[in-house]
Amino acid sequence: MSITATWSEGVFKPTGEVKGAVPGKAYRVFSDEEILELTEGVQWLRAAEPSFEFWNNDDDAIYDQL
Question: Minimal CA–CA distance to 41: which of 50, 53, 49, 52?
């Protein structure tokens, strides 16, 4: 589930329709800055992935199971 919310009078209030929410269940809401920070590492890993292609070979395929 992905939502945006605003902080008002000590409460986060959704800025749009929220689908699939269960009453009483706690949800974590991230700011745009937090989402960027969380996904930045993944982008760097994807960019670096081709430099590790040499490990995709039959000789060390046994390590793929670890």
Answer: 49
